[in-house]
Amino acid sequence: MAVYKDKWNGYNGEKWRVAVYYKDWRGDRRKHEKRGFNTKKEAQAYEREFIAKSSKNINMSFATFFNIYMADLKPQLKLNTYLTKEQIIRTHILPYFKEKVLAEITPTDILMWQNELLGKRDSDGKGYSPVYLRTIHNQLNAIFNHAVRYYELPKNPCLATKKLGKEKGGEMQFWTLEEYQKFANVIADKPMSYYAFQILYWCGIRCGELLALTRADFDLDKKILTINKSLQVLKGEVVITPPKTEKSNRRIDLPDFLCQEMQDYFDSIYKLDDRSRLFNFTKSFLHHELDRGSKAAGVKRIRLHDLRHSSCALLINLGYSPVQIAERLGHESVTITERYSHLYPSVQKKMAGSLDQVFKEENNGDEKNG
User: Fold this and answer.
1) Which of 10, 17, 43, 140 could form a Cys-Cys staple with 6, CB 3.0–4.6 A?
2) Which sign does the torsion angle of CA 322, 327, 333, 337 carry?
3) Same domain, yes or no, for 146 and 232?
């Protein structure tokens, strides 16, 4: 194995090449070559990374393994998931660990990294949220798990340390039907906003699914909305991707009033065709409208995604089962839907009233028997 000045194909010694022998998965000895490096340092770095990956040598730098890890995962991840993972690792993990040897990273190193992360503050003196800290920690843990599973690292050093942050945010927020209707009445002064929020609330779809909707997705004769795509902004570019999960591909039955409202909306759009996006604005616009409408209606400000929670809570309050709701909302698992079962306060009060009644009946019976 070696790095050479390359005189091939007109390079005239101005480029470098790598020639290295390795054993493939059958154990056969093979030769690998790579040309076109501008410097000897670049060629040597490529040589080290190739040897490490082909031999599963864990005595490589963390930075080298990061490149291997991302290359391994890229074919298996949606582009937006891949880019999010890459951004988190490059920003919060790689700067600390990149020069360390993968096999020599210890639980103490993990602890020191955690303390550094906990100490970071923005211009307002605020640190990272507990949920985001857990997200960062999970990315580092996943890297070491990958090394253990596929590259014979003896043990994941994260296992000996306490996890950062917490899994979920605060209590889930939602609007009751009464609160949503107050909001909808106020937001109706902007028709595009009104129809967008009507779809979000009554259909429980995700924001990316809403922004990707076209006229062809609505069959108003059959009263069906088809969800088969999502809009994402990746590296500043608008990209239409498949939905979040396989079960997110779904058909939603629409109520009559919403079909009529959407027909009114379609009629108002000039030269609407089947491929036209119906809501040609950004998530930022929806956040602004949510702020404006909440304040004007005098209802609590919830997150944009909480409209989906609100839709789920409403269906639970109407008596539909988690299985039925999961199918409509495109939840990957019924257990996700079951997390919402506590939301409607009217249900909780009714439960408390029922328990009180049972208690009184039981005690009255005891008094009579006495």
Assistant:
1) 17
2) negative
3) no
